[in-house]
Amino acid sequence: MSSTSSTSGTAVRRRAFHPGSLAxxxxxxxxxxxxxxxxxxxxxxxxxxxxSYLGWATLAVAPLAFAGAVLPFRxxxxxxxxxxxxxxxxxxxxxxxxxxxxxxxxxxxxxxxxGMGLVMVAGGAVIMxxxxxxxxxxxxx
Length: 141
Description:
It comes from Promicromonospora umidemergens. This is SPW repeat-containing protein. By secondary structure, this protein is mainly alpha-helical. The chain is 65% helix and 8% strand. It contains five helices and three strands, in the order αββαααβα. The protein has a three-stranded antiparallel beta sheet. Helix 1 (21-36) runs antiparallel to helix 2. The chain starts with 20 loop residues before the first helix and ends with a helix. The mean pLDDT is 86.
């Protein structure tokens, strides 16, 4: 008599996490928290990241890092890393260019400095780019 409950092959169990999951969560947290912290420090006060569209844009894409961290597909995770890292890096470079431009036009060098939020967004973008690179290299091997 044959058994009707047996399977023809072994069940393949897919893990929900991949090697870059922890780094994606840390990078996403850095971008998310950095988006609301001060981006520019001046003697008159601090300008938070959410005071401009750049802070709102980085705050909007940061949750995608958490979504990519729990998906078991490496290509999708690489895409999520890049979708979070590229706007973050562009926002940081644009803000620094604007600070240099304002400092040069008003001859107030050394009065405006990048705030902690801008540094955290830059760090989060670097973490996400590095994670995308590591996941890409791991999938080639």
